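Escalated from tier 1: 4'-deoxy-4'-aminopyridoxal-5'-phosphate holo job.
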Amino acid sequence: MKVSVFERMSALATKHGAVNLGQGFPDFGWPPEILEAAAAALRNGSNQYPPSRGLAELRAAVANHYSRHQSLALTAEEICVTSGATEALGASILATVAPGDEVILLTPAYDSYAPMVRRAGGTPAEVALRPPNWRVERQLIEAAVSPKTRAIIFNNPHNPTGRLFDLEELQTIADLAKQHDLVVISDEVWEHVVLGERHFTPLASLPGMAERVIKIGSAGKIFSLTGWKVGWIAASPDLAGVVARAHQFLTFSTAPNLQVAVAYGLTEGDAWLDPMRQRFARACNRMTEGLRAGGYEVLEAASTYFLCVDLDASGIAVSDEEFAIAAVEQAGVAVVPLSAFAEENACRHLVRLCFGKKDETIDAGVAAMLKAKEIFS
Ligand code: PMP
Ligand code: GLN
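Tier 2 regenerated the structure:
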């Protein structure tokens, strides 16, 4: 397995003292109350192995949260807590993909999907989304389905493009999954990081999908605490059961004091969500305007902490990888080359920047991006 682009770019950012707009983590905005809840739980003795599937209070809190925010009718039996969404993805893939199976990925795709599918003995079948619109095209996915196809890994809102897929696109995924009897691993970690007035719809809410979707969530994204690594899957009792059995042998369980705090946050923290979205929307505008003023072509982002810059259209005639290395080594800013998320060529002129930062970080990052532009002009 190759070294993850996030590890590689963060190490280069540290080495060169660069502003880190590569790996996606916010440097502001987490609710202090949730930190207190975690500290109190730790002092109150929540420190031994919790049940493998997660503390009952967190499983109930996740189910209730989705019932309030997304009208999903889930019970605690349909939730399994994992150590971040990364483990949820690994457990879901190990639970559903057998040697010889094919798994459809829409690229650019989050970097853990393809290596984990391969390790499970499966073969990724990549379907390329095309910039700048990144639309899900029914014919392209249909053409990638074979008798061996077992699952689709779908990611909405989408990292790295910042796209929020519309209802027609969700319906396409749902129709194909039902028609070909596929499981959909639906990575919805960015469900609350949706900018402006846009509305997120979970795939499992479409007719006939509750029994075939494994929905993945992450407290790291909901509370801007990415290092906590508390995630979960939500699925029908049968599917949740097989994922929970894979999870037993990956991590078995997840830090109980953090589970107590996340249960508190999901139950009491609804009022934190809108201000968070507004902060990220402001940050996105600030970075977009700064980059555009400096002559960069920026693709529109509707969700996540990420925006993409089109190097070609910005007059920079080098690959994303070459630009990223020069930017971190010579201009003082780390970005992520989009080719890290796809094996084919469609993304070689794009880099991803994390805008989920304080004003001064954004301004320093934009200034360094302008310096990077000069290197290639
Ligand atoms: N899936 C996607 C699409 C992500 O963007 C991320 C993290 N940025 C993850 C999974 C991993 O989440 P976690 O940190 O909870 O493991
Ligand atoms: N998901 C984060 C991103 O997309 C990084 C997570 C990680 O470092 N594995 O940037």
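The chain has a mean pLDDT of 97.
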